[in-house]
Amino acid sequence: MGIIIKPIVTEKQTAVTDKKPNRFGFRVAPDANKLQIKKAVEEMYNVSVESVNTMNYSGKRKSRYTKSGIINGKQAAYKKAIVTLKEGEVIDFFSNI
Question: Could you give phi then psi for residue 29, rounded to 5 degrees?
Answer without folding.
Answer: -65, 140
